[in-house]
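=== Discrete structure encoding ===
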Amino acid sequence: MRVDSIYIENFRKLSKRNFEFSDSFDIIVGQNGSGKTTILEAIYLLSTGKSFITNHILNCVNFSADFFLLSAKFEKQNGVDSIDFLLGEKKKELRYNTQKITSFSEIIGNYPVLLLNYTLSDIIKGGPDKRRDFLNHSLIFTDHDYYKALLRYYSMLDRRNALLKSNRASMDILSVFSEEMVSLGVEIQSKRENMINEIQLVIDELFLKVSGEKVEIKIKYFPSPVSKLNNLESIKEERAKKRTLYGIQLDDISIRLDGKETREYSSLGEAYSLAFSLRFAEGEIIKKKKHEIPIILIDDFFADLDELRRSNILKLLSSEQVFITTLSTKIIPPEIIDVAKIFML
């Protein structure tokens, strides 16, 4: 899969710009604040329905305008799709192949994209929510039923928590929510564990290719016991504390490198290498299950990597469409520059 082109209007600092991309490497060069990351954010937004910078997409509207418009063409094995997204304070319109749709949830997972930026090590060094986000991202692009179950579960969780906070939560009402949440939670946790098992099969080899180091990596899933959502004693405890104390929103993953817990003991270099390896494992699974090659977005990040890791990572990306933002092309290997399309901002 690849992005053929994107039109950007009033999106952050970019007023009216059209970009046509290559099949392999697209390198976007410019100073800080020139709009390099904005191009990647626009691609990511149309692929996932989310920004990787803000939770409030309206913040992306240019200060001098009252709306933004993004229009892109995605080439897949079975043809070319178009996505057009207009958003403002008083207007919102999303079109898929010229037809209006209500939300990105109708097309989520169709356009897999992998983001590699300075926050990548949070998968390793950050809190449990970062590792849950990684699992959710991996599964959303490979299993649409997972995404639907996830949306339904969190909708039920929000309503259940509101009841617990309001002191209007009778046991009967909570049991109605809990029963469905347990069913959804079991489904979601089963799929999360299967994804971790698939990643485990390839992670050691990918880490070797990224870092040049042979290590043993063990990934273990720690699911929160969803069955307790429907347990009488647990519900009494939740009513006292006025919040849900069990469920998929509290799951975590342990990642050990040569027996050591990476969140506490890995160096920053090891954390980045491991996070890259996890992203590449995700990409391999997407290729296997979706028969589509994900788009790679690398945002102002190569300068933080040593030459060996930069070279190794680019070798792993030889078959993908890769977007790289950078202050200078000097850190990009000459063999990549020779085949890349370069955009100067």
